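From: lab user (bench 3)
To: helpdesk
Subject: output format question, protein + adenosine-5'-diphosphate

Hello, I'm new to running complex predictions and I'm not sure whether the block I got back is the full result or only part of it. Here's what I submitted:
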Amino acid sequence: MTLTFRTKLLASNIALVAGVVLVVLLQISQSVGADMRRELDHRLEEQARGAAQWVGEGRHPGRLATRLAVVVHADVSIFDREGALVGSSDQGAPPSSSTAPAAGHAGDEPELVAARTGIAGHASRQRAPGGEEMHYVAVPAQDGLIVRLAVPLSDINATLRDLHERLAGAFAVAVLAAVAFGFFAARVAARPLRAMTDSATRLAAGQYDIQVASTSPDEFGMLSRSLGTLATQLKAKISDLTTERDRLSAILSGMVEGVLVLDGSGNVLLANPAAATILGAEGALEGRDVASTVHDAKLRAVLEKTLASREIHEGEIETPGDGGQTIAVYVRPLAVDVGGVVTVLRDMTRIRRLLAQRRDFVADVSHEFRTPVTAIQGYAETLLRGATDTTTARQFLEIIHRHALRLGGLVESLLELSELEVRPPEEAIRETVDVQLIAKNVAETLTKRALAEGVTLELDVADDAIAVGDPSGLEEVIENLVDNAMKYGKARGTVRVTGGRHGARVVLAIADDGAGIDPKHLPHLFERFYRVDPSRSRERGGAGLGLAIVKQIVEGMAGSVEVASIVGTGTTFTVSLPTRAA
Ligand code: ADP
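Helpdesk reply: Thanks, we reran it on our side. This is the complete output you should expect:
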């Protein structure tokens, strides 16, 4: 059983009061008893000495004893020098000492022995075994006689019993008072303690707004105020720690780099969202082991090696598969006594892809430039050597001119493309674009060529096709797509340009009935320098930049362009443009 502080205090108060009162009462009882006996003794001795003056040879001891007994209110016995009883106020008493203990010799009683030596003798004992308790005082008288006075102790004993009863009552009252006062005192003493216990419990539960009302100067008051100060300091410290943790967490969450901290056993101590994204892991990573967190075997091996060797590792890892990533990994052991490692991961896939694209772009540009440059160089050198006639020289010059035009076209396309790529969205032109009118203009421009090539050009654009964007940009887009349809469509086929409003968009379709495009090429069609059939395309003057320019222009107008094609049936390019500025 757990005793509360209040109960313990109450119990100790009661025990203390009861103990002290008991000792005091016993002391009183003993000293009162002793005083009463001493008083009796003293009185009896004086009376015995007074009586002894009357006792002597020649006086009848029996009668004398009886008369003296009436005067002193006590049994009077007279003994001779041998200790034999010679007179007694108690007529039933035997001639010898009938008051002697059964086993002792007549006259051997301690008070008589003392009296024979000339001093007063005192003794208390039972008159007879199991009989009344008596007090005896014997004094020497004349002629070797001894006078002994005896009184029963029953009066004193009754008084003492009465006293004991009163003292027991007083003891009970004292204990009851101790219980009442102790209860009250324990309650008062335990109150601040209870308040502090409540405060400490709330502190432990993380509630730091505790009110300290105590102004008492005692230890409880001081403790209570110290608890209040502790709570305030704790609150401030925890607030600082929380701010610090939140700041760190915000930094870690905002980082592009993945941060993964493992303990000495390879379990995750900390992982930021970027780490989870790079590792392709789902759910909370903290507490999981390295095997269930890092799925890539190479990266796992690096982490395990660093955990074991405690050496810094820096490098790049290529993960396998179609969506393979390039991850830059930096692993560093934590302090030796803690164990574990801290890993910084950076997804380099996009950067590596961009670098590869740039490399491919440079290679593509060089490749495109090589043919015309080589041709110009060759024909020009031949001309410079001067070994050609006028007709041949003219033919050579025409070839040089054609290649120079091609080079010029290429340079122009590349410049336009790069300009479109770097143009910020806020600089995009947002004018009202009458799509029907622009489509009509393009058709008119190309009518002559269509007639020459035997291509039928059909135009069906609704007059509600009013978009928002760059009119000259859209003209270039339509021209490019119709040009492609005529170039790559069926010889003497039909090119249809249709358009109209669809909700909040204007949708324009340029369709041909040509050979179509194999589905495997469709995802790459809008890439720079991509051509389905490079030789055929080049032969028609194409460098694979037209569709890339179309895509850039359309997206610059917040629109989109898609291609759908069925081999043997034809190809349709669909341009969708907004009707309202974003
Ligand atoms: P190019 O300058 O070679 O025409 P484009 O970017 O305009 O470059 O076109 C890319 C490639 O897409 C072309 O080389 C051609 O193979 C293919 N292509 C474009 N339009 C059509 C079409 N209407 N029908 C079939 N193939 C097409």
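A quick orientation on your result: The first helix runs from residue 5 to 52. Let us know if anything else is unclear.
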